[in-house]
Amino acid sequence: MADPTIIIYHYPYSPYARRVVWYLILRGIPYSQCVQPPMMPRPDVSQLGISYRRIPILSIGRDVYLDTRLQIPKLEALFPEIPRLGATESDQLAVERLLSLFTNDTGLFGKAVQLLPTDLPLLQDPAYYRDRADFIGGNLSPEGMNAARPEALGAVIRALDLLETTLLADGRDWILKTARPSLADIEAVWPFHWLLGLPGALPKDHFSPAVYPRVYAWIQRFQDAVSTAKKQMGKPATLKGDQAVQAILQAPFNENEAAVDGKDAVVVAQGLQRGDLIRVWPTDTGSSGRDEGRLVGIDTREVVYEAGEGDHMVRVHAPRHGFRVKKVVDEAAKL
């Protein structure tokens, strides 16, 4: 599809949303945004027929993509005329993927969240704790966050030590010694960039340019590169919920229909076939936001299903990693 309509549903201080926004800006891909509240409910998203509660949500044409770990590879495959940010050599690709696992799948961000200063305005609202308790599937309180702070500080110290003494130890500007920020830098920088932007989150005796000179200089270079690219690109158009939905529904699909991999273990175990009603949800955080739709395609990398009906139908793509797919057996009960 030529020049697809790209819309990101996000709120500006979401660290996960920044991953995608940075990618779009650094690669120079035009996009529009539909700004969302930081807490549920999100009626704009509900208009798409989606119950998924994590941010960001990315639409490319009439295809909607969940989770940054799927969204960024999908963007990387678009616009071959624009230089890509991802690695191409096998050893560099391994570093890029391992950094993604390091920041996304080791619990590092969960530790970073425990360092949020409890005097932040948003954290004064009891609704925040109720919302995030539902998000993480457990209890959350200012007292619990303060109690967890020492252990969380230790986790962040170990992570910064790793960057300072290994990948950045030789004084390189960028993780893969590229001429500009690459996807590997985005994969590595986002939780630390977020934390350093929160006054009071990190004690200065343990976290400062004097303690981590290479890391702090790298983060500043990254911010400077994003700021420069942002000025060149200009501000994205901001759409209201109705406008975003209309733009998505009027656009062509970004991808051809996927196939059902008959050899996939979940497909075999559940006897899944195209058109089956399925339920899809993340297994780590936000698991209360469960979508139901008709199966379009599934393989080891993603599951694709239809949300909504008729002229209001979109195709939703979720990664298999970190998501569960379950056939809805008693369809009559759903009607």
Strand residue percentage:
5-15%
- Strand arrangement across the biggest beta sheet: 5-2-1-3-4-9-8-7-6-10
**Number of structural units classed as domains:** 2
So what's the oligomer here? single chain
Estimate the mean pLDDT confidence: 95
What structural category do the secondary elements indicate? Answer: alpha/beta
- CATH class bucket of the largest domain: Alpha Beta
Number of strands: 10
What shape does the CA trace take? globular
Helix content: 40-55%
Domain GST N-terminal: 9-81
Protein name: GST N-terminal domain-containing protein
InterPro entries: DUF7962, Glutathione-S-Trfase_C_sf, Glutathione_S-Trfase_N, Thioredoxin-like_sf
Domain DUF7962: 111-231
Notable traits:
Glutathione-S-Trfase_C_sf, Glutathione S-transferase Yfyf (Class Pi), Chain A, domain 2, globular, about 325 residues, Glutathione_S-Trfase_N, GST N-terminal domain-containing protein, Glutaredoxin, Thioredoxin-like_sf, 10 strands, 2 domains, alpha/beta, single chain
